[in-house]
Amino acid sequence: MSMTDRHAGQTERQGTRRLTRSRTDRKIAGVCGGFAAYSGIDVNILRLVMVLLALLGGSGVVLYLVAWVIVPVEDAAGAAAGAGPGRR
C-alpha cells in the first residue's frame, strides 16, 4: 500500500512485526527465542551460535546482554498466541 492509497489518519504499522524477547521460548531472558520468532531461524541454531561466540572471544555474552537490555518483552497477548502445541 503506497502513501497515496492510505487515508490521512491510517498508520503503516498494520501487519508489521516487532523484535521482542519471548515469554514462552526462553532459557535465560528470551532473547534467542524472540529473535528466532522474528527471523524464522530455528532457536537451537541461534543458541548454538551465541554459545560459540561466547566461547570464541566473549562477544556472544556482550551481544546477549545488550539485547536483554534493549529488546522489550513481548506482551501477554503475543505470548499466548505464540504458544502452540509442543511449546513450553
How would you explain this protein's 3D organization?
- The protein has about 90 residues and is mostly helical.
- It has a domain at about 15-75.
- Helix content is about 45%, strand content about 0%.
- It is built from four helices and no strands.
- The longest helix is centred in the middle third of the chain and has 13 residues, at about 45-55.
- It is globular.
Order of helices and strands: HHHH
Structural class: mainly alpha
Low-confidence stretches: none
Helix content: 40-55%
What share of residues are in beta strands?
under 5%
Shape: globular
End-to-end CA span: 37 Å
Biggest beta sheet attributes: none
> What's the count of strands?
0
Mean pLDDT: 78
Précis, in short:
The chain has 88 residues and is mainly α. It has a domain of 58 residues. Helices cover 47% and strands 0% of the residues.
What labels would you give this structure?
mainly alpha; 0% strand; 4 helices; globular; single chain; 88 residues
Layout of strands and helices, then pairs:
Elements: H1 31-39, H2 43-55, H3 59-70, H4 76-82
